[in-house]
Every structure is written in structure tokens, then in C-alpha cells.
Design goal:
The chain has four helices and no strands. It is mainly alpha-helical.
Length: 112
């Protein structure tokens, strides 16, 4: 009996070819999924995009210090106006936004 090693099922040439084939497949997979390089899955990336858009929309439309009725709007207009003409324009904007607090009776309205 001799102590010979068992025969190798793959010789060195076949092993090198198998390693090259795996490396080529890994390179192809990396090209197919470039977002994976950053460690973020596509689903997580979409969620992050949605959250950023939602926060931007809320920040754009939410105005916590805006006037909530005609009286507050008129007070702000009186503070900000420098002239009577500017006050008239600002009060007109308040009426357009909140409606006229003291509408004229029908018989006093001008007929257009």
C-alpha cells in the first residue's frame, strides 16, 4: 500500500476557468444592479424618494403663521401697509381670500 493522494477531480486549468467564469458573472451582476454599490436596495431607494417629496410638499403648503380669518388678515395688512393705497390693496386681497365680512345689501351694490 502506498500513501498516494486521491485523484483530483478538477485539474488546475479547469479550476482557473471556473474562477474566471464566476468573476465574469459577478461583473455582469454588478453592471445590472448599479444601485447595489451604495448598499441601498431599490425598494428602500423608492421609499426614501417618496419621503423626501412628501416632506417638501408639506413644507411648501403648511403655513402655521398665516392669517386664519379676515380679522387677522386685516390686522396684518394694517401693520404692513405704508400708505392708504397699499392698505386698500392688502384689504382687497384679504376680502378675496376670506370673503367680505360686511357685504353690502343687494340694493346698494353697483350694477355691472
Amino acid at each position: 500500500m502506498t500513501d498516494e493522494p486521491p485523484p483530483d477531480p478538477l485539474d488546475r486549468g479547469q479550476l482557473a476557468e471556473a474562477i474566471l467564469a464566476v468573476e465574469r458573472r459577478v461583473a455582469v451582476l454588478e453592471k445590472e444592479r448599479p444601485i447595489a454599490k451604495f448598499g441601498v436596495s431599490p425598494a428602500r431607494a423608492w421609499i426614501m424618494i417618496f419621503v423626501v417629496i412628501a416632506i417638501a410638499a408639506i413644507a411648501f403648503f403648511w403655513q402655521p403663521f398665516a392669517p386664519k380669518n379676515y380679522k387677522q388678515c386685516a390686522e396684518d395688512a394694517a401693520r404692513e401697509a405704508k400708505t392708504n393705497g397699499a392698505l386698500g390693496i392688502l384689504l382687497s386681497a384679504c376680502r378675496d381670500k376670506f370673503g367680505d365680512p360686511h357685504p353690502l345689501p343687494e340694493f346698494l351694490r353697483p350694477k355691472l
